[in-house]
Write a structure and sequence with these properties.
The protein is built from eight helices and twelve strands. By secondary structure, the protein is α/β, with parallel strands linked by helices.
Length: about 290
């Protein structure tokens, strides 16, 4: 298992073949985990877990994804930003509040993806940590800014606050930088304000962001079933604007059933061995009962 906080530096796939695209994308985001977890699911011990996570997107497939997860009793971790959606006022807008609340009732976990889906573009030289940031959601989408560590932390925290408002459940003290773009300085800044970064495993890059013309659902499913192993963190999205043949739910259901057939089970990041101590350390103790 990799030690410490994971760092990813994302690049665009440059080759035209599916294998090359997946290899480049997965390697650029490589986050090896490994290990066996004692998470409990449906009152049974999950001895060979994988950790399925979803980042927000256009939300068009979100209801279908929720149906599949409920049907197979799979709990996941959602990383949320206030992204533009096909319907409603943003993925962390009031339109989607009932959807988030229902997921909390089902036992899913939540974490921040930064409120403005704020891409890290580079560190700014200097003693105090500052970063070049390009939001892709909200009023300032498409522009680039210099943010202090405090400003970046506030953006992480606001997404978590919105999730807690909607769900009544405190999100995990974790975050995922949009696109997986990070630097050691950015990760350290987030850690200093209480958020550990979570990337994904090489095999866990499920490919739903790739062009469907060159990365078919069938090919993505077959590769995932072949490569995913115990301990991997998997990443997909609640809708990708650019993909013509949606990955979900077409791939999601056979992926779940196929991984279960291989003897794997599903756990949330609350049970991930790399993060359990961090989560416990950031969680205030419960008030004593009278």
């Amino acid at each position: 298992m990799a030690s410490g906080l994971w760092i990813t530096h994302r690049v665009k796939p440059l080759a035209t073949s599916l294998v090359a695209m997946l290899c480049i994308a997965a390697t650029a985001h490589a986050q090896s985990t490994g290990g066996i977890n004692d998470a409990k699911k449906d009152s049974k011990t999950c001895d060979n877990p994988v950790y399925l996570t979803f980042d927000t997107g256009h939300m068009g497939v979100a209801p279908l994804i929720a149906q599949v997860l409920a049907r197979h009793q799979v709990r996941v971790t959602f990383f949320a930003s206030n992204e533009r959606t096909q319907e409603g006022d943003g993925s962390l807008g009031n339109h989607w509040a009932p959807w988030w609340k229902a997921r909390a009732a089902e036992g899913h976990e939540f974490a921040s993806h930064t409120y403005d889906h704020a891409y890290w573009k580079g560190d700014v030289p200097g003693h105090d940590p500052q970063f070049r940031i390009a939001p892709s959601a909200g009023a300032f989408a498409g522009r680039e800014f210099t943010w202090s560590a405090k400003k970046y932390c506030e953006n992480i925290a606001y997404a978590a606050e919105r999730l807690q408002d909607f769900t009544g459940k405190k999100p995990l003290p974790l975050f995922r930088a949009p696109g997986g773009f990070t630097s050691p300085k950015l990760i350290e800044a987030a850690k200093s304000c209480g958020y550990a970064h979570v990337g994904w495993s090489p095999a866990g890059f499920l490919g739903d962001e790739l062009p469907s013309e060159r990365a078919s659902n069938t090919a993505l499913l077959n590769k995932a079933l072949k490569d995913i192993k115990t301990g991997d963190i998997l990443v997909a999205h609640l809708g990708i604007w650019s993909r013509k043949d949606p990955w979900a739910p077409a791939v999601l259901e056979p992926l779940i059933t196929g991984l279960k057939a291989k003897g794997l089970c599903f756990a949330t990041l609350r049970q991930h061995p790399q993060y359990t101590a961090w989560i416990a350390a950031q969680t205030p103790p419960a008030a004593p009962t009278k």
